[in-house]
Amino acid sequence: PEDGIELVNSGISALTTTQAFNPFMPVLAQQPDWIFCALGGNDAARMGPEPTKTLVSLDETTRNLAELRRLAGIATQARWVWLTRMPIDEARMETYAPFQMGPVPFIWRNPDLEAINEWLRDQPESVVDIYAGFGRPVPPEFQEPDGLHPTLAGHKALAREFVDRLEG
Are strands 46-47 and 106-107 parallel, antiparallel or unpaired? Predict the structure, then answer.
């Protein structure tokens, strides 16, 4: 508080990059000093038994991310930071009942997330590489039983990686 720093989390759970455009416009209107972008993970979700494709193709994901960055550059002077997606525990995810319920189960695969991360790492802006920082396999104490979401310990590790990367 004494530094006058205010963090506004404008993230909306479960959005794909395609869905992120509309809620992103009010973020730009706030004229932030920094924008931390952690989108793309839900694009890599696959649905259904024996799924053959991601919800959003890699090509569309990267075009969407590039366009969000372009819009921010036009509308603000904000410094942009990309955050890679953290790895998942595919085995835990495949046995997590809520992801398997109903007629259309959900799964994610590390190669799909890593393909997005590779594109992010190639961008000229700063990148906080959460994927590399968590290691593989991810320590079990860093992930919820679903194998996808971080625990409190995982969030703390993510925050350390974030601060270490931006300090360095």
Answer: antiparallel
